[in-house]
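Protocol step 4 of 6: structure prediction from sequence.
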Amino acid sequence: MLAEVFFYGIVIYLIYKIVFDFFVPVSQASKQMREQFKNMNGHGQQQANNYQQQTQPQNNPQPKSKNVVGDYIDFEEVKK
């Protein structure tokens, strides 16, 4: 009788430790990660909207010059 109560006490204690040392922290961490992903997703959509607004063509009254000459670097061969 006493051994049976002791055995059930140990089993109940082990179940308690497993639940509160493993499952509760895992559930809290997963909840926190879901909230962070939700915040990141909302923040990403805001950045995408800002990017689209910035990349829309703007009307410039001055036409660009078509005769654009790039920089030219003279090449010199080095002999040893």
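Step 5 (inspection) to follow. The chain has a mean pLDDT of 78.
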